[in-house]
Amino acid sequence: xxxxxxxxxxxxxxxxxxxxxxxxxxxxxxxxxxxxxxxxxxxxxxxxxxxxxxxxxxxxxxxxxxxxxxxxxxxxxxxxxxxxxxxxxxxxxxxxxxxxxxxxxxxxxxxxxxxxxxxxxxxxxxxxxxxxxxxxxxxxxxxxxxxxxxxxxxxxxxxxxxxxxxxxxxxxxxxxxxxxxxxxxxxxxxxxxxxxxxxxxxxxxxxxxxxxxxxxxxxxxxxxxxxxxxxxxxxxxxxxxxxxxxxxxxxxxxx
Length: 255
Description:
This protein has 255 residues and is an alpha/beta fold. 35% of the residues lie in helices and 18% in strands. Helix 1 packs across helix 4. The N and C termini lie far apart (51 Å).
């Protein structure tokens, strides 16, 4: 499987296409549906990369990075779940799955943990375009976040009960039960600047570490970053430590 270059806004084949930061890959075997999606997104000023299969997607991403990939669940050459996991591991690309088996409202048990959104077929084109636009705006916001200076800044605080994360600029972010469990483990086990292992963090979510898909942890952290970005211009002080786990500088509130 070809390696995928990270997504960089404004970087194209020759570095000159100013629309590359609005590039969307549409991976769908049905040419008629691809054309319908393309027409809908073109009205929102997105540039479209049409791909009939996963192989075409990988080939295009090597030379034309995309911000978002819209992936059908019935690809002819690869399991779309594998495609989504590969994209998640090697890029910060937004992922939308088109699933004929999804419930009404886009609920899909097979993809909700690895995709940012899921649409039932036949596709609501207006709804898809709206989600793509919102996802791109969030990506643009997150990439433009200033680098936090450590000197003299108030600290990020996790409330004593663990249900609220408070940012240095005063925002309060309500946490879900899984987010609370992971942050409590990070704050308690990682006190003093020690990385917390993936297994330890997974252990905060389940009693059976070996039967737990580690990509669920990655998605939880990915979505937590996005939640924080909607509430504060400050980036979540949580970083991956290669081969070890995660390191965070959030502290426990005193009271």
